């Protein structure tokens, strides 16, 4: 039993600051009140207590080639199966890969990240390597696998399906690279099998302008539209939304979440995601640091770049609280929206049955309530509130603005404690 005492807590979905103590027992927050003081006392005076971070998009496998290939084109570096990255990965020993992944996970933990969603290359073996590497580290990897059979357009669909099923036995989902590398048939099978297994289907979309335009020419749909129409659960990048892409994303938000990776776009000279428009459209995005070869998996750096690059480029105010929510509570808000959608769907449907009318039907998905996906049922990220798992970070207080304090001031050395369920790590 522990009490985190005398800190300012960013509580609930809304990250509302309040000066209270938190009592934790057996991996659960039992009480939050100014009075409670039991068990081991953890001093949080001059600190903020913040939900730990979710890094919603990583490629941890390329930890082994940090800062390689700088200045080459994106295709030369990361395009599967023959980009620089894939050649190096296939020539590295398992022990080397495991050591480099461990070191990245320790970097994440010490900078306040307890959960990350990884695009794991290397098929079933690749997934097993990450599981082995993360075994003794109190961090939660959410692993999305893939297989080289996805790139073979001549492959027998039944073989593709079989391969996906076997990956899903050990992974949390499937993530091919992009629509440019796989056939529509393979995309359909991936989404279908993930849905049946209640796992995550994810894909990169709209990372740069020509991908969007080429897709529009070839398929009469942008990559983002394709991602939404195929019902992928998690779309990555959306650096270049076109036409009504973002309206489609919002409409499909019961199924589809999005993760943006501004620093990755920056280092690859691909532009700046229009985060201001995404927020205006009432979409609640997540943030990811993408390839560890390009950027450290440090979410505070990601938040700082997101805030400042978007303000600078679009000449518009972005609220720091919105940015902090992208790294902490949006994943939980999105799942609550899904639950609300289920309720509104049911109530509208019941109304339709009784009134025998079909009005309002446009606001809900036309299929049925099986067509709703709760990403957080797999990620399992929690907020700071009673009965929740303690997934939180105690950070040094430099200023009176709790949100800018984290985005603008806190460095890894200012992270004092990280709690993740029953584990807590003392970095003091
Ligand atoms: Zn990526």
Q: Number of DSSP helices?
A: 16
Bound molecule kinds, no repeats: zinc ion
End-to-end Cα distance: 20 Å
Query: Percent helix among the residues?
Result: 25-40%
The CATH architecture classification of the largest domain is Alpha-Beta Barrel
Mean pLDDT over all positions:
92
Strand proportion, as a percent range, falls in: 15-25%
Mind telling me the C-alpha Rg? 21 Å
What is the approximate shape? globular
Structurally, the number of domains stands at 3
Quaternary: single chain
Q: Give start-end ranges of low-pLDDT stretches.
A: 344-368
Q: How do the strands line up in the largest sheet? A: 13-12-11-10-9-8-7-6-14
Question: What is the CATH H-level superfamily of the largest domain?
Answer: Metal-dependent hydrolases
Structural category = alpha/beta
> Quick one: biggest sheet?
9 strands, parallel
CATH fold descriptor of the largest domain: TIM Barrel
**CATH class group of the largest domain:** Alpha Beta
**What is the count of β-strands?**
17
Summarize the topology.
Blueprint: E1 2-11, E2 16-25, E3 28-33, E4 40-43, E5 47-51, E6 53-59, H1 74-78, H2 84-90, H3 94-110, E7 113-119, H4 123-134, E8 140-145, H5 157-168, E9 173-174, H6 184-196, E10 200-205, H7 209-219, H8 223-229, E11 234-237, H9 245-251, E12 257-260, H10 262-267, H11 275-280, E13 286-287, E14 290-291, H12 299-314, H13 320-327, H14 330-355, H15 376-379, E15 391-396, H16 402-409, E16 415-420, E17 423-426
Parallel strand pairs: 1-4, 1-5, 6-7, 6-14, 7-8, 8-9, 9-10, 10-11, 11-12, 12-13
Antiparallel strand pairs: 1-2, 2-3, 5-15, 15-16, 16-17
Helix pairs in contact: 3-4, 5-6, 12-13, 13-16
């Amino acid at each position: 039993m522990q009490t985190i005492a005398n800190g300012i807590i960013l509580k609930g979905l809304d990250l509302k600051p309040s000066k209270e103590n938190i009592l934790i027992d057996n991996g659960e927050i039992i009480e939050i009140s100014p009075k409670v003081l039991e068990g081991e006392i953890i001093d949080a005076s001059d600190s903020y207590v913040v939900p730990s971070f979710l890094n919603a998009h990583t490629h941890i496998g390329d930890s082994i080639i940090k800062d390689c290939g700088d200045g080459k084109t994106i295709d030369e570096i990361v395009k599967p199966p023959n980009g620089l990255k894939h050649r190096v990965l296939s020539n590295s020993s398992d022990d080397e890969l495991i050591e480099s992944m461990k070191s990245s996970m320790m970097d994440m933990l010490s900078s306040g990240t307890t959960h990350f969603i990884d695009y794991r290359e290397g098929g079933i073996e690749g997934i097993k390597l990450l599981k082995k590497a993360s075994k003794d580290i109190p961090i939660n990897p959410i692993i999305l696998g893939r297989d080289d059979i996805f790139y073979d357009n001549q492959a027998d669909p039944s073989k593709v399906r079989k391969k996906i099923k076997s990956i899903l036995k050990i992974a949390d989902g499937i993530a091919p690279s992009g629509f440019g590398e796989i056939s529509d048939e393979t995309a359909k099978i991936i989404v279908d099998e993930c849905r049946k297994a209640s796992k995550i289907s994810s894909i990169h979309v709209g990372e740069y302008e020509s991908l969007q335009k080429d897709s529009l020419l070839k398929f009469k749909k942008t990559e983002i539209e394709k991602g939404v129409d195929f019902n992928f659960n998690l779309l990555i990048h959306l650096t270049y939304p076109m036409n009504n892409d973002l309206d489609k994303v919002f409409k499909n938000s019961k199924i589809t979440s999005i993760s943006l990776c501004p620093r990755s776009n920056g280092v690859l000279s691909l532009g700046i995601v229009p985060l201001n428009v995404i927020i205006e459209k009432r979409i609640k995005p997540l943030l990811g640091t993408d390839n560890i070869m390009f950027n450290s998996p440090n979410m505070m750096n990601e938040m700082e770049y997101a805030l400042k690059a978007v303000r600078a480029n679009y000449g518009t105010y972005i609220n720091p609280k919105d940015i902090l929510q992208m790294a902490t509570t949006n994943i939980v808000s999105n799942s609550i929206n899904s639950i609300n959608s289920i309720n509104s769907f049911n109530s509208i449907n019941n109304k339709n049955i009784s009134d025998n009318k079909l009005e309002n039907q446009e606001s809900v998905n036309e299929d049925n309530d099986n067509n709703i996906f709760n990403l957080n049922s797999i990620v399992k990220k929690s907020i700071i509130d009673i009965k929740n798992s303690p997934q939180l970070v105690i950070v040094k207080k430099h200023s009176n603005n709790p949100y800018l304090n984290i985005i603008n001031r806190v460095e890894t050395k200012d992270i004092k404690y990280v709690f993740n369920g029953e584990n807590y790590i003392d970095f003091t």
